[in-house]
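Reopening: structure tokens for the zinc ion complex, inputs below.
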Amino acid sequence: MAIMHHPDVATLMSCSAGSQPEALAAVVSSHLSMCPACAREVGRMSLIGAALFETIAPVEVASTAPIVEARAGEADNPPPPDVRPSGGAIPYPLQKRLGLTSFDDIPWRRLAPGVWDHRLPLTEGATGDLRLLKVAPGVKVPEHGHEGEELTLLLDGSYSDATGIYRTGDVSDLDNTTEHAPVSDPDRGCICLVASEKRARYKGLLARLLQPFTGL
Ligand SMILES: [Zn+2]
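Re-run output (same inputs, fresh job):
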């Protein structure tokens, strides 16, 4: 099925500039391995970025315009980024990070009835939070807001909220202006890769996620 939800242009730009926090970059690179359209776009942005960088070099300003133009023309056929076909349901960049090729082999930690997670380590000193989240069919996450950027990549199943239905390959790119209350697929549930710019923020989501179960 076609991918309907892509990262924002600003998110793709910081990916192409290499300035993205590690956790967010891990989600974007997995999306790029599943989405040729975004992979092409990031390739194009990288070429334009390289051309702009050249304008900083000590050359006559007047002579830089044709360089940018030529580069922009080349951008129609950018070189393929480091994208390899995914061997299974887990996208290739994530397989590399996990050292696993199947969701069945992930040592899931049970958080609450119907909710499991698996935290992925980041490079020492990196801020943010990266984890896989597995949600049983029909689980509703209470309405919540966001602090900082949060990216969610759907890897299996689906979930829906007021902004639409998210299926395999789709990315939800949320900032602190968004509030939503996602519900997992009633038959299949979902598995997502979730990255948050801020650790504390994600703790907040987990607390809310678990809220419906605290009365049990
Ligand atoms: Zn895309």
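Residues 3, 6, 31, 35, 37-38 surround zinc ion (CB under 6 Å). The helical segments are 9-16, 22-34, 36-56, 64-74, 92-98, 199-210. Marking as resolved unless the reporter disagrees.
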